[in-house]
Amino acid sequence: MTLLLADDDHTIVDSLAPFLERAGFKVLVVSNGAAALEKVQSHHPDLIVLDVLMPRMDGRETLRRLRHANVWTPTILLTQVGEASERALALEEGADDYLNKPFDPHELLARVRAVLRRARPGERSLSAAWLLTADDLVLDRRARRASLKGNSLELTPKALAVLEYLMTHPDEVVSRERLLNAVWGWEYPAGTRTVDTRMAELRRALDDDPASPYYIETISGEGYRFIPSVHGEG
Amino acid sequence: MAKRPWLVIFLMALPLFSGALVSILAQGFFQPVPVLVFKIDVGMVAFIAGLIITLFLLSFYAGGLLVERRSQHMLERSLKEAELGRRRFLRRLDHEIKNPLTGLRAALVNVQEARGTDERQRASNNASRAVDRLSRLLADLRKLSDLEERSLENLPVNVPELLQDMVDAARSIPAYGDREVNLLISRVPSPFPTVRGDRDLLGVAMYNLVENALKFTSENESVEVRALEDGRTIVVEVADSGVGIPAEDLSNIFEELYRGSNARGVDGSGLGLALVRRIVALHGGEIDVRSRQEEPRGTVFSVRLPVSKL
After folding, report:
1. Highest-confidence segment of B174-183, B241-250, B297-306
2. What does DSSP say about strands A216-219 and A75-79: parallel, antiparallel, or unpaired?
């Protein structure tokens, strides 16, 4: 498995590259977006880890160009700011996952493995799809609307964002900490309860019984898992 | 007004001049003119009227100038205060970063020079503790700046439920697992009114207060969280019987990165109360603190939030 790591900070790549190599990956390193585009064309890596702030061409623009050229190599975007709009943008450009700096290298490794497991080579990933369908549940990401059996669901924006994250990462055990990091952008000790509150709201709206769930399963001590398979369009 | 002073003075003096002119033209000074049965000094009346109008305009103008000067002064002062605040913040930030960084450096040297697995293990534990401290500081800084930018949710929040959640969350931290927190909520007549706002942020605020109370009390001291309402306002009080906050610290504890004499050497980013104050203000509320260091000693933080209108 070959991994392309694009970040202009040498102290970061000098430490991350050997760490990822020890985990069994072949790691290519570039320090800007333009170089990343070239490396993708010449070496066809299996996954790209892309920093957002880079000289010459930033990570966001790089990703836009890749997707525009119909290159669907799974990509993890390293964002700098824990801001909600930033994360929404990350989705818009078709990143498969994103991680806020500063992060624990083990967390990056876990994401890399999860994204690779989910990836279907050459195919557009769920993260880049605007309309997600799982049986009777439809999520329109552009309109920020979800419906069940054709009936529109009344959800708070947060609960909708949680549903979005789960549906773009189906059949994956997603920890509360990861949801906090991805949807809220910040973590705090009481945060896991915050996640549980939104999950309860989501389940009520979906009429999903936690004891015998159809959509969202609780994996005790670990997190949540979206059960049905998800189909993406557009 | 201040841009054309000559024009202003001319306009103000105009009534006086016209009054004087009228009085001279009408009669020559001091020669009463008979109007009906009365003899009225028309010239003098015109002159005095002009004088009064001019005086009135003058006082109006002077008052305006005074107000303007005062507001200018206040603006300057608040700018100066903001500048002072910024410098103070940077100085404190420097201090908060310096310590864990020093620890981290020392730990790295120890990792390199360790003479056994035990020593190396201890050094790397210390290094990750220092990293944790820096990460926490950064996370709280980001929360503070995020507060200025993110859009708040504006939904009814069930305060008693939120308080119960946050008390449970604080007690789920291993260090506080065996601590009692008394939660008192007026339940009659029910239901307790809601607050409109962002549940997650209000949760952060309440959690910080409860965790602070636990942090600054020991096992045999008590912590109480109570909520009251009077139909317009919900008051949440987080009270403890701990050592209390020195009077000279009380007015500063909501400042970013301020550390009172009690809080030196205690874990924390120094941003918790600043976050609480900001969140409460964003919800149209207020926060107060009162504290005593003599018996009966203790500290009470009270948060007042407006009840949501139906």
Report:
1. B297-306
2. unpaired
Whose tokens are 């504006």? That residue is B154
Tell me the CA distances in angstroms from B197 to A80, A179, B279, B285, one per residue in order.
Answer: 27, 21, 10, 11
The secondary structure of A161-228, three-state, reads HHHHHHHHCCCCCECHHHHHHHHHCCCCCCHHHHHHHHHHHHHHHHCCCCCCCCCEEEECCCEEEECC
Q: How confident is the model over B2-11, as pLDDT tens digits?
A: 567 788 888 8
In this structure, what token pair is assigned to residue B208?
């910080």
Predicted local distance difference test score (pLDDT) of residue A80? 66
Q: Cβ contacts of residue B66 below 8 Å, gap of 6+?
A: none
Element (H, E) at A63: helix A59-68
Give the Cα separation of B243 and B295 in Å (integer): 9
For chain A, domains (ranges, CATH) are: 2-118 (3.40.50.2300), 129-233 (1.10.10.10)
Percentage of residues in chain A having pLDDT higher than 70: 93
Residue ranges of the domains in chain B?
Answer: 1-150, 155-306
CB atoms within 10 A of CB B160: 18
CA torsion angle A27 A31 A34 A35 (round to 10)? -40
Task: Report pLDDT digits (tens) over A2-38.
Answer: 999 999 999 899 999 999 999 999 999 999 999 999 9
- φ, ψ of residue B184 to 5 degrees: the values are -115, 125
Asked whether the beta carbons of residue A190 and residue B166 sit closer than 8 angstroms, the reply is yes
Question: Could B139 and A157 be called an inter-chain contact, meaning their C-beta atoms sit closer than 8 Å?
Answer: no
Asked if B173 and A197 come within 8 Å (Cβ–Cβ), the reply is no
A157 touching chain B per CB within 8 A: yes
Of B142, B143, B169, the CB nearest to A189: B169
d(CA B234, CA B227): 7
Please state which CATH class domain B155-306 belongs to: alpha beta
Let me know: does B41 contact B33? Beta carbons within 8 Å. yes
Average pLDDT value for residue range B251-273: 81
Residue A100 backbone dihedrals phi, psi, to 5 degrees = -85, 135
* Chain segment A110-122, per-residue pLDDT in tens: 999 989 988 877 7
Residue A90 has pLDDT above 60, yes or no: no
In sequence order, which residues have a C-beta less than 8 Å from that of residue A203 and are 6 or more positions away?
A209, A210, A213, A215, A216
Query: What's the pLDDT at B302?
Result: 96
Asked if the model's pLDDT at residue B13 lies above 80, the reply is: yes
